[in-house]
Structures are given as C-alpha cells and as structure tokens.
Amino acid sequence: MTIRAEVLKDRCISSGRCVGDEPSAFRFDADELVELLDGVTTMSEQRLIRIARDCPGEAIVLYDDNNDVIELH
After folding, report:
1. Which of 1, 13, 43, 66 has most Cβ atoms within 10 angstroms of its Cβ?
2. What 3-state class would DSSP assign to 61?
3. Among 69, 57, 1, 67, residue whose Cα is nearest residue 26
C-alpha cells in the first residue's frame, strides 16, 4: 500500500509537533501553518501514520491507494 498525505490548513493549529518530529517532511509556511516537503515521500508508512495520529488538530490526513481516507483514531 502507498500512503499519500495532505495537510488540511483549516485544521492546523501550528503546534509544531510534526515539524519537530520530521523536519525533512514538514515545515511552517509564511502563515505559520504546516506544509508538506518532499521528505514526506521517503518516510516509512508507520512513521507517517504515527505523526498523523499525533497531530493535535488532526490536520494531517492520509489516503490509501484507492484515495480513501485512512482512519487513524
């Protein structure tokens, strides 16, 4: 299975947890909201799932090969 990630900026509360955990994959944009970097494509699926699950704003959404949302909680 291949996982695709998306950040829902309207849910991002800028906690920085994902940026701190994986700065090669996440960073803050000019509005201090998280955006994805190319590094997100090289992360293990387990690590990406953990980071998405730990997002306090539930702003990181993951999709499977069929483009269905992967339920994390």
Report:
1. 43
2. strand
3. 57
Rg (CA), the chain: 11
Helix locations, 1-73, DSSP H: 17-21, 45-54
The tens digit of pLDDT for each residue in 15-41 reads 999 999 999 999 999 999 999 999 888
End-to-end CA distance of the chain: 19
> How many helices (H) and strands (E) would you count in the chain?
2, 4
Using CA atoms, how far residue 65 sits from 1, 2, 8, 40, 68, in Å, is 6, 6, 19, 16, 7
Domain 4-63, what architecture?
A: 2-Layer Sandwich (3.30)
Residue located via tokens 């906690």: 15
Residue holding tokens 């992360």? Answer: 43
Q: What is the pTM of this model?
A: 0.91
